[in-house]
Design a protein that fits this description.
Mean pLDDT: 89
Low-confidence stretches: 155-167
Structural class: alpha+beta
Number of helices: 10
Order of helices and strands: EEEHHEEHHEEHHHHHH
Strand content: 15-25%
Distance between the termini: 44 Å
Oligomer: single chain
Shape: globular
Largest sheet: 5 strands, antiparallel
Helix content: 25-40%
Bound molecules: the ligand Cc1cc(Nc2nc(/C=C/c3ccccc3)nc3cc(N4CCN(C)CC4)ccc23)n[nH]1
Strand order of the largest sheet: 1-2-3-5-4
Radius of gyration: 19 Å
Length: about 280
């Protein structure tokens, strides 16, 4: 079906899943196969006004090429005179951000399984020379097997209740070299993995602060407080990811072998789908 050129009449539109800066995402179903997808609609006028056509084109080219169980698939795209439509994989359990807000923080097994999934997705991205996929819980979706799927809303789509939209998006996930405007490479993703690990275990990002200046300072000097309930092994892993010098950060392949991951997220394990309805008694 990658050869076929799609058009809007091939789909039945469902509820809006989220509203964004450049357009909305709808649940949709392909009429013939009944295959459920997420249809992201972008307005050409807004993309032209924001002069990000090249960025959108690059994102689409990259995402169409990536094939990995922990990266949200883009099946294709089409356009009419006013809009561009991206045909995306539907992730049934929504954004990790909302799941985290619901239960405040995750237990070690749940957190480790998401960190493992993301490390696998990033290892694959780096093998394809793709970096900085803008990691943050808002951009990570959860599939029907409760597996993590990296979804790159690269053109900053704002989920309605996202609390961390500072002027240029959340600073929490920026690495020291990015905060200092230095050229960034794939090691920024290793830093962000460390930030995510902390946020999943604690419920808030490690460098959260009242204003962006304080956040900058905490990032540059890696000022982190680990609550008492964080295990030594988890601290060990985060301590090896949240390192100022990009060259000294733990390689992603080693993350998958780290004791905290091996013990808490054995191969093939996934968190329970909490909203799975208890058997009717
Ligand atoms: C691209 C994509 C999205 C997607 N799935 C979902 N996206 C979004 C929210 C999406 C969104 C989009 C743009 C801006 C903000 C949010 N919200 C979702 C919410 C979902 N649920 C189902 C489970 N409920 C408990 C909570 C609401 C399920 C899937 C969702 N699959 N593929």
């Amino acid at each position: 079906d990658k050869k076929k050129s799609w058009m809007l009449t091939d789909f039945e539109l469902g509820r809006p899943l989220g509203k964004g800066k450049f357009g909305n995402v709808y649940l949709a179903r392909e009429k013939e196969s009944h295959y459920v997808v997420a249809l992201k609609v972008l307005f050409k006028s807004q993309i032209q006004d924001a002069e990000i056509e090249h960025q959108v084109r690059r994102e689409v080219e990259i995402q169409c090429r990536l094939r990995h169980p922990n990266i949200l698939r883009m099946y294709g795209y089409f356009h009419d005179e006013k809009r561009i439509y991206l045909i995306l994989e539907y992730a049934k359990h929504g954004a990790l951000y909302h799941l985290l807000k619901q239960c405040k923080r995750f237990d070690e097994k749940t957190a480790a399984s998401y960190v493992r999934d993301l490390a696998k997705a990033l290892l694959y991205c780096h093998s394809k020379k793709v970096i900085h996929r803008d990691i943050k819980p808002e951009n990570l979706l959860i599939g029907h097997k409760m597996e993590l799927k990296m979804a790159d809303f690269g053109w900053s789509v704002h989920s309605p209740s996202s609390r961390r939209m500072t002027l240029c998006g959340t600073l929490d996930y920026l690495s020291p070299e990015m905060v200092e405007g230095k050229p960034h490479n794939y090691a920024v993703d290793i830093w962000s993995l460390g930030v995510l690990c902390y946020e999943l275990l604690v419920g808030m990002p490690p460098f959260d602060a009242i204003d962006s200046h304080q956040t900058y300072k905490k990032i540059r000097y890696v000022i982190i407080k680990y609550p008492a309930f964080i295990s030594e092994k988890a601290k060990d892993l985060m301590g090896k990811l949240l390192v100022v010098n990009p060259e000294q950060r733990m390689p992603l392949a080693n993350v998958l072998q780290h004791p905290w991951i091996v013990e808490n997220a054995p191969e093939g394990s996934h968190p329970p789908a909490n909203n799975s309805h208890p058997p009717a008694n």
